[in-house]
């Protein structure tokens, strides 16, 4: 990260030179440049290779971008990756093996793909509902039924016996929030959580929902202090998880 493309170019070339001294090589095909409207566009060349400028890219398994709809695209991407993982195992899910084995396989190989990194997302009821709809479709595929069978969601869940994806995500979020709030090592996670926009004008319209908005609704504006009491935080988390699990049913 840099305040100008000139500084970024210097940093990258220094990294490339030092890497070569110890026998390492930067992968220029995977090195991308992204900048905002406050930067004057100019090419960045490292080791004789002009780096590609992009609006978004996948970093540590998640889409990183400067737009406001990054989470919507990431939800769609997680659903696609979930179906890809499900498709590779479809011959097992559609076989005659006991349902408890299918459920265990789903929990080990599909659900983690769909929920990867979700503890850092800013969730809305609509985004959660899209994930729940995708999971219901996978459950029907495992059971060999379709929408035409007109089975109730509760009946499908009782037969498939899979963990509700909203329950898994909300539990991960609550645990991660408590973990970040209790950190004392001054790492970036807590710094980002406490960061506030510098004083000055902002764009017209309703400000975007913060990541901690639903945490504040359940634990109050001083939720980071509440999280220091692990027993209290755990008890509050049960109601938080229940709320997201029931959302959109």
Task: Note the topology.
Layout: H1 5-21, E1 32-33, E2 45-46, E3 49-50, E4 52-53, E5 56-59, E6 62-65, H2 70-88, H3 90-93, H4 99-109, H5 111-115, H6 125-143, H7 153-160, H8 165-181, H9 188-194, H10 213-219, H11 223-226, H12 230-246
Parallel strand pairs: 1-4
Antiparallel strand pairs: 2-3, 5-6
Helix pairs in contact: 2-6, 6-7, 8-12
How would you sum up this structure, described in words?
With 249 residues, the protein is mainly alpha-helical. The protein contains 12 helices and 6 strands. It has helices at residues 5-21, 70-88, 90-93, 99-109, 111-115, 125-143, 153-160, 165-181, 188-194, 213-219, 223-226, 230-246; strands spanning 32-33, 45-46, 49-50, 52-53, 56-59, 62-65. The strands form 3 sheets. A two-stranded parallel sheet has the order 1-4. It has a two-stranded antiparallel sheet with strand order 2-3. Strands 5-6 form a two-stranded antiparallel ribbon. Helix 6 crosses helix 7 and helix 8 runs antiparallel to helix 12. The two termini are 42 Å apart. It comes from Parnassius mnemosyne.
Mean of residue pLDDT values: 88
- Summarize the biggest pleated sheet: 2 strands, parallel
* Class computed from helices, strands and strand pairing: mainly alpha
Determine the number of helices (DSSP H or I, runs of at least 4 residues): 12
**Share in helix:** 40-55%
Protein name: Endonuclease-reverse transcriptase
Question: How would you summarize this macromolecular structure in one to three sentences?
Answer:
With 249 residues, the protein is mainly α.
Give the tags:
globular; two-stranded antiparallel sheet; mainly alpha; single chain; 249 residues
